[in-house]
Batch of 2 targets.
Target 1
Amino acid sequence: MSTKKHKVLVANRGEIAIRIIQACVSLGLDFVCVYTRADEGSGHLALARQLGGPEAAYRVSSYHDANELLAVADHAGATAIHPGYGFFAEDFRFARRVAERKRGLIFIGPSWRIIRTLGDKINTKRLARSLSIPTVPGSDRPVYDEMEAEEIAETLFAFQAEQGIANSVVLVKASAGGGGMGIEEIYDIEQFKTVYRRIRNYAKRQFHDEGVLIEQRIFDFNHLEVQIVADRTGTGIVHFGTRNCTIQSTGRQKRVEIAPGFRPEEIAYAFDAAKLLDDITGYSLAMAREVGYDNVGTWEWIVSPTGQPFLMEVNTRIQVENGVSAAISRIKGKGDVNIIAEQIRLGLGEPMGYDQSDVTFEGVGIEYRVIAEDPANRFTPWVGRIDQFLAPNLPYARLHTHIPMDAPYEIPTEYDPNLALAIIWGKDLAEAKKRGTDYLDELTLSGADGTGAEMKTNIRYLREKTATILQF
Amino acid sequence: MEIEKRVVDLTDRLSYIKDIFGGRENANVALMQARLDEFAVREREASPGERAQMVRQIEDLFDFLEKKLDDELVPMDMVRIVRHPARISLKDILENVYDNYTEIGGQDEYSIDPSMLIARAYITRRQGDKVVNQPVMVIGQEKGHGQEFRNGGSVKPWGNAKALQYMKVAETERIPIHSYVFTPGAFPVEDYPGAAQQIARNLYEMGGLRVPVVSVISEGGSGGAEAIGLSDVRMMLSRGYYSVISPEGAAAIEAGIRQGQRVAPELIAECAKRLNITAADNLRMGYIDKVLEEPALGTRPHHYDFFKTLRQEMIQATDQVFLGIAGFKLFRALVASRRKGGDPESMFVRWTLDEDAADRLVWKRYCKYRRMAETAFRDGRPSGERIASRAKSLVWSGYSFIRYDFLGKHTKTLAKAASDLEAELRLVAHKLTAPLRRQDKNAPVVCDPEKSRMLTELSQPEQGACLEEFGWRYVSPKAAEDRAVTCPGAKTYGCPDLWAPDLYGDFAGVCVNCGHHFPMEYEWVLGNVFDAESIVEYDNDIEAGNPLDYPGFEDKLDAAKKKTGRKSGCVSLDAKIDGIKLVSTVLYSAFRGGSVGAAEGEKFIRALARARRKHYPFLAYVHGTAGIRIQESLNGLIQMPRVTLAVRRYIEAGGLYVVLYDTNSYAGPVASFLGCSPYQFAVRSANIGFAGPGVIKETTGVDIPPDYHQAHNALARGHIQGIWDRREIRKNLKQVLLTIGGRNLYYR
């Protein structure tokens, strides 16, 4: 550890705040955390008070108020800020402000320039292409010229036909858009002009930018991730394996994550899955080296049914599902890997201390996101009071949660209704699946909302989905 | 009875004198008062004959002393004379100068704006035995001897609109216009239209009126006077004033007075003197052509002799204008110019003109104004350079004629023919090769590898992997501070506090949540709107001066020059926007509030001439202007019509004149050469109007809402044509350059 004793401001809530606090304690660091009025019953506050005393927690009006967070950091004498995930985690402006203000702090995450570069999907795509890393076929910059756009769309149809794709679909999206706004599919080049003009005019009116992107639409893909960990030198870069996050809610929110991404030892795939995993980790590492990546991050890939990978985006932060990669990883043969602790350690400037050959993988990990929601009804969030929360205590399972086990808990309406992360490990897929189902069977959550209606959770949904995991 | 009436008359005369001397101690006034008092005591025991004798004596004394007092008048007294209800009004003139008239556009309080009076009038003249009625359009402000509804001659925008309408009527009817200026200033309301907007329209249209305009100024208050004062012959009554601002206003600014406080009368009088507002001053500076000598202590309605003089002067002035441009004049012009004191009605001039004469008239008007205020700024260039630059501009004129007017036409014709021919040939070729292009529909689709590379590989690798979309070329120094800025929209829209480096750096001073625009310095636009390295400044040696030797102003100018590192409040430059060359002038608020004086006006006119010669589009970027520089008085005020005429000339030559307002833009410039543009845009931070809130409160007593002048209201009033986001100025300007503007731009 560096000579100076650091104090980390935990600028987040819930499960990740708890994980960060625990990691800090395990690294021998001081910490200070923040909470809002709505979160007064949250486990992260109780843990902070228990481990750090009454001075270890400040109440703020919002987790998203940079001024307040920095004022807390200054008052508490913090030297570093951990943003967790969500909130400020991928906000390069916050990272820059933290680093460049008069009383500079360490932002535990990649440096702001990297967040800025990789936070932009078009830039990410161009960067990938410049390294010959496969990306979704289509334009890699906003197109402003109608004739050029039509040519790209035309070629894209021909390209798909050549690949033997029966029903070619081309996406036209507003380059400044996002969140599903300003995006349309076309099935035939004859439709192009109408749709292009509609999207262009929409983009012009909505985003004041006429640029459109034209891309191939890929169907029935699997969603894979590569966990990258790097030190501040930007040269010590290792990966912690792959994850498969294909099981998602209707709103494209992940529900079950499995490490590793595929399991060719136990499941037969239509393509060479082992090679694919090697490819995407190789590509991810190459790109991380190119930009001098200097903390943890995730390279997100989609894999087509024919086994072609395409880079989607890079998440320049720690992810919810970091624990599942840690569960199957061994550093120099030792288990009990904690990627959050690694992130803090490396973020504060320590050297890596090991290289890729020291990182090995063993078994299969499954992470379940236990959420109060109704999967039968488009995953509508459920809000109310949890009266009983019982989880089995098993050696192969870990549960990360901010819900107190010993007292009723009111789910705050302000934040996402994520309740707990259950991570199961098995020596192979069959065992992991078996243990996962068993675990979910024993997990008890009950409560009632304001009208007295019974609590809704996704436990049954998770259990059903376990049967088919890692199958393509 | 007779005696009593004369005594009342004398008492009135004395109280008038006291009024115009404003309570100033004066031995002569005291003497007059003493004699009147003495008469009041003695008249009781005097016989009627003695009384008559005494009254005659006092009358003689009054006549004598009034002449003496007339010499003692100070500028502030002139102001009091023209404001006095006893002062002649336009109706007196209509009744006594013209032979017959009909008021149009309403009468008395039943009028669109009772303070603006318009009449079709006749001047009846004889030519031999023939009687000729020569019609004129009389336009002027009516003060109505203090009638409440006349609003003191302070004309509302719709009054000026009415004036403009009848000027156009006169133009259609081809009759000359006589305008009489009796206004303390325009009524500063923003309505539909706003004051500034309407005055600018008036000025622009008057610049091109194809009939002679003769004006007489009695009370020439700033913008209100200019609204009808742009004319071919400008005369002024000798006891009138003509100024950029009322002395009270100047004094309030001078003393830095806040609302509700009062200014010392001595300072007001001092300012009246400093501003050089009298007829004699204005004649000396060349802003009027002639002073019409008034009776002692100012004309009142009973001065019938003066009306006769005025009639003759008006006829003579109108004659002169017509003769100056007429095709056939011979001796009459000679006589007209030499005639002194004689009866101008002895000679007849027909008040009509043909198209050529009208062209000459408009051109002469332009030249007349172009020559004004030419010495009111400092030209720092050595004389050799001045001659060289004049020669260069001549060469450019010649080149521009050959390049655009002569060759340009033929090139276009040739290009048209060539493109027609090419289209014909293509069609033939297409038909001939049709059988060869027929394809087998069942053949497997093959993607052109060259094209499919475009889908999977880096496009335009020369641009680098990461597209540079972050950051601005010029970054405000405010972005270097480590502090958080609270957005004024925080309460309403819940905007987060903004970190200064983000706000003034990447966000270009715009709140990302609500779009509030924080003010930025003008260098931001220079640095980020125009192409890199494309800016070439010129005319930097034209330096703002102090033509009236206004005390203390030299220091203030020096301070402004030191602060900004520039010599005037206007930067003229050639620049490019995405390769399109343009001429631009920047008025920036850091230099004396962006006020416009002779130097700024001159730079504007030269830049316009440059753009006209080179067939470049023209962008007036207004980073705030507080109005006309009052310390230059008329030297500044005259820039309103002067630059407007130059703008008109540029627009008529087929140019594209775009105005872009940023921050606060008020008063004179907006009410003239900026407001007359058909294409005015504003950045969201702009406030646009005629007078600021303080002045409106002071002159009208009305409290205005805080968003009264904001860009969105200016847009609603039709003053501006669009509101732009600061981050999109460059893009929008490019769009404007491509889509707006006439055939005479070089890139068309």
Target 2
Amino acid sequence: MATQTIVSPQLLSGVLWVLVWAAIFLLALVLGSRTGRLWREHRERQLLGELRPAMLEVASGEDDDRSALTQLTSVAPRRTRVVDRAVSAMLSKVKGEPARALAEVLRSHGRSSWALRGLSSRRAIRRAYAAWTLGLMRERESGGKIVPLLQDRSMDVVVAAARALTLIGDGAAARPVVRAVAPRRRPRGLPSWVAVESLCTFDEPVAGVVVEATTHPQPSVRHVAATVIGSRPLPQAAPVVRERIAAEEDPRTLAALVEALGKIGGSSDLTLLARFARHPDETVALAAVDALEAIGLPSSVEALAPLVADTRPRPSERAAVALTELGPRGREQLREFAKTPGPAVQPATYALQLTAMRSATRGLD
Amino acid sequence: MTSAQPSILVADDDPDIRDLVVFKLEQAGFAVRAVVDGSAALTALEDLTPDLVVLDVMMPGLSGLDVLRQIRTMDRLDGVKVLLLTARARDTDVDDGYNTGADDYVTKPFSPRELLHRVNSMLGRGR
């Protein structure tokens, strides 16, 4: 027997009206919030447009009478958020006196105390933004307050803190940065490349901390130290690098040490580097070839020449290309290899062709 | 651009940097034209022979180094000086810049005053 469901017409009509009004209300809400957002954005663009000449004057260091600075510091309190965002963006791109003047704008709007409070916020994004803002303002005294964030549970905060410390540039943060370097294959901690960037930018004292880090139990920290020694560079670390090369077991760190020696070493290191160019790990061998080229002495030609006959294609080609960079003697040596049958023919020919192509592009002989 | 004022072409995709460099150089009396990327720089150079080109290295599409390579193959632009203005500050990046044919290299963040000194010195102009 079929069951008949009866809905009263009044109830049906009532439900329909509720649905219609709910739809209208939602539509109005969406349109209203969108219009509001567009209006706010328009107002912000207008405001920033009005202040743009003042901002450029301050950022370019042309504001001799400080009238542009006064214009930026005296905006209405409800507008400071928008102005500060634009000032922060500009601040990350300039240094020197203009950066100090732009930081003054942020300070006058209370950003310094806002950022200091934000360092202990429960929200990671707030902590990161607070650290970054303090970094942009380059206030040395804030460095000590940012340092604890290098051990934050959020990697974004750790990176923001390291970059803020890099902008401040105080070498006193070197040790905490080294301590924060993430072990390999661990998601938490400071990525190596950010640590290298910081340690290469900090002012002294950094050398002592970096040299000490070459003996750290963690390979990732030793790798950072070796990279910094070569990139900064730290010539005073040469004796330690020679010592560490003999003891290092991690291939990536060994390669970084060898490369560093190329930047800070001299003629007495050619024999050692030539030996490492025969290392079974190709990364180490390639780093040694690069190091021999980087030393760039006439005697580097003698050290590199035998490596062109290496049976591994990459080290042999790299050695051949390095010889092209070592002047007429290097190129003469390659021409000899190219016409003498043997394993050096192919890499030598490749390097000579590459040089010819590059010279043509540069419009040289 | 009149011949009395040294002319400069600026190519940078960052509007803040672009506006700032243009402002600083115009204040110093240069005739400046700005473009937003490498392709636009090459297009501008078809009918313009500036005294100096300020190039950002990392731009969408053609990079600053690509533009520089093209400039160095054009006979018409033989004497044009090129200054690279870039965030790439490693030794190897600087070497790449000079090896490609740059005359000078300034890293970001930069000091607008230092940039102006470099430009003046490249163009043999005292301030």
